[in-house]
Amino acid sequence: MGDWKLPLSAACMCGRVKMRITVVPIISMACHCTGCQKLTSGAYSLSLMISAAGFEVEGATEIGGLHRDESVHHFCAHCKNWLYTSGIAGGQFINFRPTMLDDASWFIPLIESYVSEKLPGVQTGAKHSFERFPDPSQYPALMAEFAKEGARPA
Predict the structure, then answer these.
(1) Would you call 102 helix, strand, or coil by DSSP?
(2) CATH assignment of 8-149?
(3) Are 134 and 88 in contact (CB under 8 A)?
(4) Between 127 and 5, the higher pLDDT residue
């Protein structure tokens, strides 16, 4: 886990919202649910789960997307990029959109979820696939695998 080059810097498309990740990410994911398809206008969304304590945001964000207590979608108030989702596990974690990173060229999801709603022909490169989300009992092993073998910045 010591081979991460932290902090990771990120910004929205217009640059008015800047973000910093100062902790090692917990897991990398792709989600194929129809909600993520609509939010991204693409085939799936990508996420890096990180501890909320290691995430810094500078600039104005607004809430959009699916308005749920357990997953709050934050967008740039100006360019409307989907930046991250807060409220995960009672607010302990952030699902950060890795495409906002200054360099996302290294990103490969370890897991993909909601393959039951996956569009035909779509490939993510994920090693593990789940019909919906992994069972909570599976996360410790998946997080350990990501810590040991997950993709990292060069």
Answers:
(1) coil
(2) 3.90.1590.10
(3) no
(4) 127
